[in-house]
Amino acid sequence: MMLYCNIRATYAQQYFEVENNHKRAYFRFQLLRDMIIVPLKINGKGPYNFILDSGVGVMIITEPTLIDSLDIHNKRLIKISGLGNNEDFDAYVTSGLHVNLPGGIRGQDISAAIFTKDHFGLSNYAGTPIYGLLGYEFFNSFTVKIDFDDSTVTVGAPKDIRIFKRGSKLPLTVEDRKPYIKTRLFLPDGKQVEDKLVVDLGAGHPLSLENLIEANKGLPDKFISANLGMGLTGPISGYLSRISEIELGKYKLKNVITSFPDSITKKDDTLSVKRDGNLGIGILKRFNLIIDYSNQVMYFKSNLLFYKPFEHDMSGIEYFCGGDNLKHIVINRVEKGSAADEIGLIKGDEIVRINFKSVQDMSIEEIDNIFKSRDDRSILLDVYRNGVYDRLILTLKRRI
Question: Please, what is the average pLDDT of the chain?
Fold first, then answer.
């Protein structure tokens, strides 16, 4: 899932710290549908699942019921702008939150934006309750080491975080509370470009290029139309294709699935920092990372996922987790011309079983992996629609 947001506000200096004067602290995270999920407490209550997201400039609480649960009184109403098809909307800004993460990490007087309505539906997407996103204040307080091999985050001062013996080091800039790096891209037509990209751990895609269509007057030859994610003001439409290669220091990743947002919905005028695109977790998770805002540097070291091919969903189905237990798989969108479209699946259908196994006994990631497993693979689906069960054979189709 791709989350686009642009919240502009002025805050006093805020930071997190490690308790008891310890040099370092660490905690475990869960990587769920390419989101780094961390448990945290707010004002002594919780824990609440939050997404660790370097692309977010301020802590965001997406679940409006927390306003009452946390007994928040110090708040004011602001207008939020973002990327999408609709108008701006309202959110509260509050300060003075006490935030605690595992490992003895605490933040005092943290400000947050609190949605008056859940616009992202993160819980339905993840299949587990999600309450918000934690971003700049956390990354600006420490040097942050993220190890995707053992699912841990380690934080400390720069001198207390051990640098990788073998890896790559890239310059990093922090502008308008977001990190940027420059990379070299190799396009399918043979062109080479150097692009400035946001380092965005909250973006589920590998790579998004926001200006390439206009700059090169067209898309790569092979592409599909797609819903690229959700902005604060609505869905982001665009296209999916592949680029030949991206360079990150000494590392080269080939045949990378790439998103191209439609110029109508990406709204460049909302961006305070000019950029070419967005480096998402689809690439970042293939490395263990050290992100150091204070020294303006980022370290990459390839991990066990580095050589895994880039694959996209081959079913053409977008689905969410519904019901009180978030265990019902409901189709939200079917891509025209896709494998799912060809067998007549439509929005609102509920997938009950996959290859005779109840979806309630499967994780959402198991389901994702089946739908992007292999071109021309046949999958048996039991589907519920309007009180009637049907059994269908879905044959996966790689379209990019």
Answer: 90
